[in-house]
Amino acid sequence: MLCFSHDKKKIEMKFTASIKVMPNKNLLDPQGKAVTMSMKNLNLNEVDNVRIGKHITLEVEAKDKEAATSKIDEACKKLLANPIMESYEFEVAEYQ
Q: Where are the domains of the chain?
């Protein structure tokens, strides 16, 4: 989708991002551990090693997909994920 950017007076594209943030595999995941134990208590013994993370969606305006990807990566590094304890991955698509 194309849109006018009021401050820049030029047309930019709009993108959506789907971001998955997960605790690093080498770190304890207390929430995941608690859910794993609850599965056992519910006789769901086949379920094991639950890991709990975050799913984030956002929209971004950029001149192209490469610029949008760069902005989303910057947002993940600076705010959405803690690089010491979490990893992230995301998909970018043109807004429909």
A: 26-55, 56-96
